[in-house]
Amino acid sequence: MGFYKRDKIRNYSRENERHRVVIVGAGFGGLWAIKTLTRYPVDICLIDQNNYHTFFPLLYQVAAAELEPEDIAYPVRSIVRGFPNVRFLLAKVNKIDLKAQIIETDVRTVHYDFLILAIGSVTHFFNIKGAKYVYPLKTLEQAIDIRNQILTCFEKAAYEPDEERQKSLLTFVIVGGGSTGVEFAGALAELTYGHMRRDYRNLDFGKVRVILLEAAGKLLPNLPDRLGNYARERLNRVKVEVRFNSKVSEVGPGEVKLTDGSVIRTYTTVWTAGVRGEPALNSWGLPLAPNGKVAVLNTLQIPGYPNAYVAGDLAYLEEGGRPLPMVAPVALQQGVAAGENIVRQISGKPPASFHYNDQGIMAVIGRRAAVAYLFNRFGFTGFPAWIIWLGVHLFRLIGFRNRLLVLTNWAWDYIYYERVVRLILPAKPPSEKHKEES
After folding, report:
1. What is the Cα–Cα distance from 434 to 275, expressed in whole angstroms?
2. Strands (DSSP E) along 91-230, which ranges?
3. 65, 78, 345, 387: most buried, per Cβ within 10 A?
4. Strands 52-54 and 73-75: what pairing?
């Protein structure tokens, strides 16, 4: 039975019917839900506005000119072509009617028996002024924009006669001391003080500054203090200025203002400080938490709609009095759990509660340096943590070709201290960028 034509007779025997499951989002949650459901007699429609899956844990390496965008992206149709009961629809979801079980897209209307929403999150700017001047880091396109901006600033600085403007061009601010902010700061420091120094021999690299702003008093708040302190010391060693208790109040075209009144002159402000649910959800009748995420039951179901589930970053669920972290392992496990609960419902069994199996959190801080906290017990720093990080990320990367390309780029960079993807690509006009303001 197809996805795009609803049977007019509603009250019929469903004993031999293949249930229609629609999954919105080709991220970790959506793909792992598919892997779970394809073993059962259901018809699956996967909807995404991009025709590729992005490996988000390595997105910052695209922004830091360490990897090509194609290295961390994989075609959705290549992923699902081995599953005869899966169809892919390249479309943007405009509205979901949970009561009528209808999804309206810019291509066609899709009906479902079961729904899994796994559309991820968007950047949250916390209502700061001038968010349009910020470079968010949530999509491949945004990562390319950041790479273009960094490389363009060096090109402009190389021939800038005004010393103050040159300093501003060579000052890079990163907002947010979580995993993404720490990892990008380390990667950017390696790029600017290493590779770029050889390319721009006429520049005074004493003017280059990489500044990491954190509103709280420590880095990596989800990790023990010992690991956060190691991250800070390691960043300081590679010349990253880490500033704690530094909240941004406003961003302009050439400056960042902090709540304490201080001003940093810069043309590049990268935002990794927060995420929220897609603002369009406000009109879909979903129960939303204050951060715009969907507040779900412990079964991952949407309250009042037992045939609709939410997985990944979009799902707001607390365990132990704290919301689950927005990391790939949570999305993977929730995708599997949502798929299994749909199977349970089809079999006449009640859905099971979701419990996150925390296998650990990791962050790399540059060459031969990382932190890893595994199973809430074992903490590693330095080279051993770096090896663990490399292995885990290569294993999770989808596609042999992608693994080979990433490994090759990493090896080339490691052996020759050379990043070969320092390319300034054609970009959108500035007026069309940074549309994810909250």
Report:
1. 14
2. 93-97, 102-105, 109-111, 114-117, 122-123, 135-136, 171-175, 209-213
3. 65
4. antiparallel
183 part of the active site = yes
Taking the C-alpha atoms of residue 129 and residue 257, their distance in angstroms, rounded to an integer, is 10
pTM score, two decimals?
Answer: 0.88
Show Cβ contacts of residue 384 under 8 Å, excluding neighbours closer than 6 positions.
372
Q: What per-residue confidence (pLDDT) applies to 419?
A: 63
Q: What sign does the dihedral 113-119-121-127 (CA atoms) show?
A: negative
Tell me how crowded residue 30 is: count the other CB atoms within 10 A of its CB: 28
What average pLDDT does range 222-250 have in this prediction? Answer: 95
pLDDT tens readout for residues 140-167: 999 999 999 999 999 999 999 999 999 9
Q: For the segment 367-403, what is each residue's pLDDT rounded down to a tens digit?
A: 889 999 988 888 999 999 989 988 888 877 776 667 7
Question: What CA–CA distance (Å, rounded) separates 315 from 318?
Answer: 10
Hunting for tokens 């490399």 — which residue is that? 390
Smallest CA-to-CA distance from 341 within 329, 333, 87, 101 is with 333
Q: Which of 66, 183, 190, 255 is catalytic?
A: 183
Average per-residue pLDDT in the chain? 89
Please work out, in degrees rounded to the nearest 5, the angle formed at the alpha carbon of residue 314 by the alpha carbons of 21 and 373. Answer: 115
How many CB atoms lie under 10 A from the CB of residue 344? 14
